[in-house]
Amino acid sequence: MKQRKQGILLIIASGFFFALMSFFVRLSGDLPSIQKSFFRNFIAAIAAFVILLRSKEPIKVQKKNIPCLLLRCICGTIGLICNFYAIDHMNISDANMLNKLSPFFAIIMSYFILKEKANKVEWGAVVVAFIGALFVVKPSFSMEFVYAMIGVAGGLGAGMAYTFVRKLGKMGERGPVIVFFFSAFSCLVTLPFLVINFEPMAWWQLVYLLIAGGFATGGQLCITAAYTKAPAREISVFDYAQVVFAAVLGFVFLSQVPDVLSIIGYIIIIGTAVAKWKYNLRMSDVKVD
């Protein structure tokens, strides 16, 4: 019980840090999303590298894991850039909510990547969650719809990345190694675009991006620690606290108020996540019995 409480507190803390990351990414102003992604991952790469050095274990990847690690890096990088683009063009709470479709995308991708078959309840949860997403996306012939679909693409990229992370974990790859190679890969991939299309920054913009990178690193460390304390089925639903934190930050500091349709979408998606969480707990209890 104590371990589960610690896991819940850690995952809520990670949600707070990731919401602050979104907030400072938005505050950094009108800069290319790739430029913002670079600085976010640069800080994370340094932090992961320090952790690996302190572990005194060799920084290397098992040869058999390279293809999956590369796919994790590609999906994660695309997902991150799309998420940052959505944060810049939408209410940060809407952008965070669309990014939180990732667990439902992970159910779909697990079927293809891990050959894991979801049951009817899980497929039903995917359908209902995507119906909820329609309220946030608001299909129309407008740029707002395009921005929202880019946010959905961010959730898809994150869901695919998490699926590959899970596969890598099953293959025996260490968490800090995965984080380091993802962050380093993202920096290398975005560096040419950064050099070619670099937008000069004021000192405060650089500070905000470095702060965003720091909070992102804190969120990553907290969520990693959370899943060492308790199984995902017991605590993952608390990750949606990030949407609440983002909504509060957007309302207080950016005067952003989600519209009625977005709020309905939030309720449907989070309600579906809560129902699926309770179902998973009940099923795990049945298996134990």
Report on the architecture of this protein.
By secondary structure, the protein is mainly alpha-helical. It contains 12 helices and no strands. It has helices spanning 2-27, 33-55, 66-89, 92-99, 102-113, 120-137, 143-170, 175-196, 203-229, 232-235, 241-254, 260-288.
Number of helices in the DSSP assignment: 12
Element order: H for helix, E for strand: HHHHHHHHHHHH
Task: Specify Rg, calculated over alpha carbons.
Answer: 18 Å
The biggest sheet, with number of strands, parallel, antiparallel or mixed sense and barrel status, is: none
List keywords for this structure.
81% helix, globular, 0% strand, 12 helices, mainly alpha, 289 residues
Provide a brief overview of the structure.
This protein has helices at residues 2-27, 33-55, 66-89, 92-99, 102-113, 120-137, 143-170, 175-196, 203-229, 232-235, 241-254, 260-288. It has 289 residues and is mostly helical. Helix 1 runs parallel beside helix 11 (241-254) and helix 3 (66-89) runs antiparallel to helix 4 (92-99).
Chart the SSEs and their pairings.
Blueprint: H1 2-27, H2 33-55, H3 66-89, H4 92-99, H5 102-113, H6 120-137, H7 143-170, H8 175-196, H9 203-229, H10 232-235, H11 241-254, H12 260-288
Helix pairs in contact: 1-9, 1-11, 2-3, 2-8, 2-9, 3-4, 3-7, 3-8, 4-7, 4-11, 5-6, 5-7, 6-12
